[in-house]
Amino acid sequence: MAKKAKQIDVDPKMCKGCHICIFVCPHGVLKKSDVVDNRGFFLPVVADLEACVVCRLCEMECPDFAISVVEE
Ligand code: SF4
Ligand code: SF4
After folding, report:
1. What is the Cα–Cα distance from 39 to 48, expressed in whole angstroms?
2. What is the pLDDT of residues 27-44, one digit of tens each?
3. Is 71 in a helix, a strand, or coil?
């Protein structure tokens, strides 16, 4: 059975808004937030959780270990 994500967490203290996770995701699951945070960063947010196949590329490529995918 195909893997599904229950949630995707971005740690707002560790994320620096580089958007590597957005670029590496092969399924367009993540997008840039429209809202700037208190450090001036646009953090990634989930655009389409259903599309996530839990490949964990976003986790592996994040330089700051700021994103984690929780499998269903
Ligand atoms: S686990 Fe894979 S499919 Fe899911 S958000 Fe990360 S890169 Fe995209
Ligand atoms: S790759 Fe990591 S640090 Fe960069 S935007 Fe994504 S979660 Fe944040």
Report:
1. 26
2. 999 999 999 999 999 999
3. strand
pLDDT bin (cut points 50, 70, 90) of residue 1 is confident
Q: Which amino acid is at 63?
A: P
Domain ranges across the chain: 5-71
CB of residue 39 inside a 6 A radius of ligand 2? no
Query: Among 8, 9, 11, 16, which is best to mutate for testing ligand 2, by the most ligand atoms less than 8 A from CB?
Result: 16
Please say whether the beta carbons of 42 and 36 come within 8 A.
yes
Domain 5-71, classified CATH 3.30.70.20, yes or no:
yes
Mean pLDDT of 51-67: 98
Which residue from 57, 9, 66 is spatially nearest to 39, judged by alpha carbons?
66
